[in-house]
Q: What sequence folds into this?
C-alpha cells in the first residue's frame, strides 16, 4: 500500500475543510484507480488539518496526482494557511478497531538511514508493535516510510484522548531504544480523527 499525506498548517477553517473533503475531494478520490481510502485528522488548537489517502500501488497514487492538484488548491482556499504534500510506502498496518471520527491520533515523525529500513522494520514488528497493540484503547497503527529519504511517520489511533496521552508517555522508553538503532525522532502531533472512509 502507498500513501499521500497532505498537511495544512495555519488552518483557519477546519470544519469547512472537512466539508469540502467530503463533498468535493472524496467523490474525486473514489473515481481514481487503486484508491483504498482516506482519513482526515485535526489539531484544532494548533491549526493543523491532515489528509491521508491510501493507494494500491505507487503507480496508482502517482497517476491520481494531476486530477487532485486542483482540488487540493481549492481546499487551501477554504481551509486557509499553507500545505505540504508527502509520499510514503506503508510498511505495516494493524487494526483492532477501524479508525472513526472522534478517535484520537498520535503521529510521530522519524528518520533513518534508508539502508536500515528493513532492519528497523523487523525491530518494530518484533519489539514495538506488541507493546503498542497491548495499550488500553488501542484501535490501529500505521508505519510509513519514504524509502529514498528515510523519512517516515508512525501513526497510532486510540479510542480517546486519555488513551492517546498514556500511549505517548509509554512510548518514551521505546524511542530511546530505537534511537540507539539510528532512528531520529521529530515532532509529535496529537490530533482528533474528523473523517474516515477506509475500504
A:
Amino acid at each position: 500500500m502507498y500513501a499521500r499525506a497532505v498537511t495544512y498548517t495555519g488552518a483557519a477553517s477546519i470544519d469547512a475543510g472537512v466539508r469540502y473533503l467530503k463533498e468535493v475531494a472524496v467523490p474525486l478520490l473514489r473515481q481514481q484507480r487503486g484508491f483504498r481510502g482516506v482519513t482526515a485528522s485535526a489539531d484544532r488548537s494548533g491549526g493543523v488539518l491532515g489528509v491521508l489517502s491510501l493507494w494500491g500501488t505507487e503507480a496508482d497514487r502517482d497517476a491520481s496526482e494531476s486530477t487532485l492538484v486542483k482540488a487540493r488548491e481549492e481546499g487551501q482556499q477554504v481551509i486557509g494557511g499553507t500545505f505540504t504534500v508527502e509520499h510514503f510506502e506503508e510498511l505495516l498496518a494493524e487494526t483492532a478497531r477501524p479508525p472513526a471520527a472522534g478517535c484520537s491520533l498520535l503521529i510521530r515523525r522519524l528518520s533513518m538511514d534508508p539502508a536500515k529500513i528493513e532492519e528497523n522494520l523487523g525491530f518494530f514488528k518484533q519489539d514495538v508493535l506488541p507493546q503498542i497493540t497491548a495499550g488500553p484503547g488501542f484501535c490501529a497503527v500505521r508505519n510509513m516510510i519514504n524509502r529514498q529519504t528515510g523519512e517516515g511517520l508512525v501513526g497510532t489511533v486510540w479510542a480517546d484522548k486519555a488513551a492517546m496521552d498514556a500511549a505517548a508517555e509509554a512510548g518514551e522508553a521505546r524511542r530511546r531504544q530505537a534511537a540507539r538503532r539510528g532512528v531520529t525522532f521529530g515532532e509529535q502531533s496529537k490530533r482528533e480523527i474528523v473523517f474516515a472512509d477506509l475500504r
Summary: The mean pLDDT is 94.
